[in-house]
């Protein structure tokens, strides 16, 4: 597994193991929890006021003031993203659960994000095996019982997290990274989602996958799974950094899952938000290891939302082994 210096404070709720019995497609996770290998660090903190940044004049019209403020805010957010990305590895080393909160950007201004770029040594097709390695409930104000009853939390139902279709289970699939025309290496998400979901579901469940820089649309064959017929993924914040043979990246995702409902002619729609934190470590030209931390958040309509409006209420850890196919 990926080794990063430091130690997680894994005391408290979630550290005792036991059964996971939230219902709705849940698995039972027995045994004690093993600490995930890494997590993000301090969140971005704004210490400036956009209203004072350039001495906004009192005679400006309301429209001009709004446009001026929006321009300043957009510029600051873009700068914050660049600064935050440059020290992602250091933040991950801190292993502070408080740092798994939602990024500032998606809640203020929706800025299109570029496709994630990966190091050259990830290029190619890999045979991947993964194994669930533990979970954590970092919000002390919420009891384990309160969280387990909330089946709308991402990960508590199958396919509520597209990259982890059945949290708690193991799987084997293929993952590919290709070189674009500009020479940069990106993930083949279309092939990746198809192989991943089919492996977890246990059959050829994926009908089609359409991808753009910041959106993925996954259509499933009707009847293959009861929890989803179509999945829409929207990415609104990404960071990455390479340090030697280690590459770290994060992706904040809003997932909308459409499926069958009890009401005839009306599709069931479930919205979830979560953030992925990947760490890849190169071992040889033909083998690498990785860890994925997935932080799940509450939606505003959730009764527990105001107790954790921006903090991760559940964190899942999954370990991966990559071998060239």
From TrEMBL:
Residues 116-324 form the DUF6816 domain. It holds the Pfam family DUF6816. InterPro entries: DUF6816 (IPR049213). It comes from the Eukaryota. This is DUF6816 domain-containing protein. It comes from Guillardia theta.
